[in-house]
Design goal:
The longest helix is centred in the last third of the chain and has 25 residues, at 289-313. α1 (17-29) links the parallel β1 (5-12) and β2. α1 (17-29) packs parallel to α2 (48-57) and α1 packs across α11 (270-277). It is globular, with a radius of gyration of 19 Å. It has helices spanning 17-29, 48-57, 72-75, 97-100, 122-125, 175-180, 183-192, 200-208, 229-232, 239-247, 270-277, 289-313; strands spanning 5-12, 36-43, 63-68, 107-111, 115-117, 134-138, 166-174, 213-215, 222-223, 251-253. Strands 3-2-1-4-7-6-8 form a 7-stranded mixed sheet, with helices on both faces. It has one domain: Spore Coat Polysaccharide Biosynthesis Protein SpsA, Chain A (Alpha-Beta Complex), CATH 3.90.550.10. By secondary structure, the chain is α/β, with parallel strands linked by helices. Helices cover 34% and strands 17% of the residues.
Amino acid sequence: MADGRIAAVLAADDRFSRPLAATARSIVSHLGPGRELDIYLCDMGITGENREKIEAAASHPAVRVHWVSSLEKEVEHLPETMRAQGITRAAYARLFIPWALPRETDKVLYLDSDLIVRRCIGELFDTPMGDFAAMGVADAASPYVSSPWGVPYWSRYGRRAGDVNFNSGVLLMNLPVWRDEDVAGAAVKYLTDGRHQFLVDQEAINAVLPGKIGTIDPRWNQQAEHFIPHFRVTLPYDERQLEELLEDPWIVHYTTPVKAWSYGCTHPFRSEWFTNLDQTPYRGWRPSRRAYLAGRARKLLDRVKDELRPLRSG
């Protein structure tokens, strides 16, 4: 319904508190007339001080904020293979959304915390889902299950090379289907029985939901790789679609390790991220060169640890 309540979910650990606030602010700033929003914030280790700032960022007369603080234990045993690229176990929170939210919630829009919204998400939320378990946009870096970082051994499971590999950062979720088919259980099994190879939750979702994910307008998930020619040429979009996607996205998703808030970032929509941040209690914050160098050192250390982990367990 055009005047119905919207349900949206975001998840973050404390490291992503500031980006989460910017994302939340962009959502509430673009709510259309007559729309109301329940925003569920999955606390994957956020301090009390940052929770207060995030709540202030999401403050709006038509918005109700709900904290979900029950998922850290659910994800602590799942693989953390992409920490050096900025992806931690907080990403797995979306798998457990159907059980963490009120049972009467039938549909929810999951959004990563490294994005900004430029259009009322109610328009996306109202999309009919039919029997699809989820709806999303092709991953710009690996648009097909046969792409590098797609679904490993895709042909063994009867998949076709041209099957879409979806980005999990903007995902409209049909919760009754997730509950009835125990999608979370299937994804956790995939992640822990030796089949998992690459992209944490995204790989698992694409692996366990063949044919059950529908496609939405790509403007709902413009990804940083869309600006990189060698990724762009593999996408199934015509010239007009690409122009719209690059010039007027409805959601801007800063998908690469270099985020909008990274020192030296040159993303075309970087300034809009700071515009949203400056409408939160984090206003005025800007990245420093010292913090940038320290972050590079931490990422290098994380990468070394990731590479050494198989040797230690061998």
